[in-house]
Amino acid sequence: MSISINNLCVIGTGLIGGSLCLSLKDAAAVKNIIGAGRSEETLQKAKQLGIIDAYDLDISDAVKDADIVFVSVPLGATESVFTQIAAGLKRSNNKTAIITDAGSSKQRVQQIAEKVFAGESNRFVAGHPIAGTENSGPAAAFADLYKNRRVILTPTADTDAAAVKRITELWQTVGAEVESMGAEHHDKVLAATSHLPHMLAFGLVHCLENMEDIEDVFRFAAGGFRDVTRIASSDPTMWRDICLNNQQPILDMMKRYKDELDMLYNALEAGDGGKLMEVFEHAKQTRDKFTH
Ligand code: NAP
């Protein structure tokens, strides 16, 4: 199912917002894209790269004619951005725009939407594309980012069904497969599969950084080190915000992992090769099953 949009407003024209614009343009699914965000420099760059057609530094102004408003800013900026969107839609009497987002945690975003869009939060469809890279900014955006990737929507019982259908079509147009689930379940699953691995990667590099032989550690870094730590090059602001906005599910996963590491520590200290083999074999079987 393909979408057709007259006016799309994208707030935050970095990797996630920029890639959506490029792929919608490739699909000839949008007539006009207006960008908004924080710095003029980023918006100018997005315009130069053909991501947006125009920009407005004032978010409230930018949304006035929008059919769809897509928010792709770090989670810590969500409340301020939603507040400016709500003011702009009210001022321009735009009663039909659908608002959606790409934030990596969903319960907190939904709470903010209910507060800020009070009485009209049924126009908000919370979403999260399970796609990305460790790079950020408009220059990192590319049209194929969402092809064959999953997008999770977390509508509530109040969310307008027609709005959910339209946002589903938006993601399908750029090649993504859309699934729906509750925000709480989303946050738990993503804490396990994305947020914990980022914590481990940041923690591992930080821990090695403080070793005496640091030069040699990085000089002889092999493929395994690169595979495990690639995501430690991700944007620190974005990841600080994800951690703070999905605090308890991430803490729960970190506790589980700490227990696992203690178990491996004890097995190694005891020279228990049988235990190590058991864990490694199980882990290999599980990963092979889910990645093949
Ligand atoms: P990004 O490349 O760094 O882009 C973020 C954009 O938001 C930039 O245009 C930035 O403008 C703007 N921005 C920052 N602070 C702002 C503020 N206070 N008000 C208005 N605009 C602001 O980040 P991204 O990777 O696209 O991530 C965007 C969102 O998508 C995040 O919520 C993230 O959780 C989610 N997400 C990311 C990934 C991923 O792998 N990267 C995957 C799925 C979901 P300036 O340059 O002017 O600061």
In terms of topology, how is this protein built?
Elements: E1 5-11, H1 15-26, E2 30-36, H2 40-48, E3 54-55, H3 59-62, E4 68-71, H4 78-91, E5 98-101, H5 107-116, E6 124-125, E7 127-130, E8 150-153, H6 161-173, E9 177-180, H7 183-209, H8 214-219, H9 223-229, H10 236-245, H11 247-269, H12 273-291
Parallel strand pairs: 1-2, 1-4, 2-3, 4-5, 5-6, 8-9
Antiparallel strand pairs: 7-8
Helix pairs in contact: 4-5, 7-11
The structure holds NADP nicotinamide-adenine-dinucleotide phosphate.
What series of H and E elements makes up the topology? EHEHEHEHEHEEEHEHHHHHH
Quick one: biggest sheet?
6 strands, parallel
Proportion of residues in helical segments: 40-55%
Could you say what the CATH architecture of the largest domain is? 3-Layer(aba) Sandwich
Bound molecules: NADP nicotinamide-adenine-dinucleotide phosphate
Overview of this protein structure:
The chain has 292 residues and is of the alpha/beta class. The chain contains twelve helices and nine strands. Strands 3-2-1-4-5-6 form a six-stranded parallel sheet, with helices on both faces. It has a three-stranded mixed sheet with strand order 7-8-9, covered by helices on one side. The chain is elongated and about 70 Å long. The chain starts with a strand and ends with a helix. The relative contact order is 0.11. Bound molecules: NADP nicotinamide-adenine-dinucleotide phosphate. NADP nicotinamide-adenine-dinucleotide phosphate binds next to α1, β7 and α10.
